[in-house]
Amino acid sequence: MDDLRIVLGDDHTLVRQGICKILEEHANWHVVGQASNGRDAVREILALEPHVAVLDIGMPLLNGIEATRQVVRRLPNLYVLILSMHADEAYITQALQAGARGYLLKDSADTELIRAVTAVAAGKSYFSPAVARVMLDDYVRHLAGRGIVDRYESLSEREREVFQLIAEGHSNKEVADLLSISPATVETHRAHILQKLDVHNTAELVLYAVRRGVIS
Question: What are the residue ranges spanned by the domains of the chain?
């Protein structure tokens, strides 16, 4: 995306400055606002209407998850990338349910930050590889402990294709174009996928995809 506008929220000044420097080294990316707490981050985002918000999960006054929930509700075209020290499924689940598109660990390399922002700016999902591995390991142990068969195996070949594309953030029309089928057919497949996997919305579908290792 040309002239990508970004708002950055993190309560640690040196961390915020470092992230800002990395982002602005990328051509046509501009950090148009910064905040050191969640309430200021919400105000900056609503006032500046950036394309992407990069938010620390542990900000004072208002945490990154609640800040995400507030801004996504008011700016549906905004994409949020959460920064965290913790590869914890509970945090990841809350972030997705709040409307975040990505979850990046703070100890990630500079290049991974660029990849994450590039992905969410395009409306796609992004998770640190370490996060995806933790979630997959937990998921496999959970199934093994309960003797449960993974419901993913019940999906047809076409449903698996649709499942991955939706989890990656593609719209019904984009999925239809990629697979040379109609948007109505995509919606039918989506309904069958949700039913078979016993998930209820896109956030849960993305979470399932990360757990299952379909996307990372």
Answer: 4-133, 149-212
Residue 114 · residue 22 · CB < 8 Å: yes
Could you tell me if 73 and 82 are in contact, meaning their C-beta atoms sit under 8 angstroms apart?
no
pLDDT digits (tens, 9 = 90+) for 106-149: 888 788 999 999 999 998 888 887 776 666 556 555 555 555 45
What is the DSSP pairing of strand 52-56 with strand 29-35? Answer: unpaired
> Looking at the domain 4-133, which fold is it?
Rossmann fold (3.40.50)
* CA separation for the pair 116, 121 (Å, rounded): 8
Q: Which CATH class is domain 149-212?
A: mainly alpha
Task: Give the three-class secondary structure for 28.
Answer: coil
Bridge partners of 152, per DSSP, are none
The answer to whether the beta carbons of residues 166 and 179 sit under 8 Å apart is no
CA distances from 135 to 11, 87, 91, 170, 178 (A): 27, 8, 11, 22, 28
* Distance, CA of 49 to CA of 64 (rounded, Å): 17
- Closest C-alpha among 48, 63, 50 to residue 23: 50
Whose structure tokens read 């057919």?
A: 185
- How far apart CA 177 and CA 91 sit, in angstroms, is 34
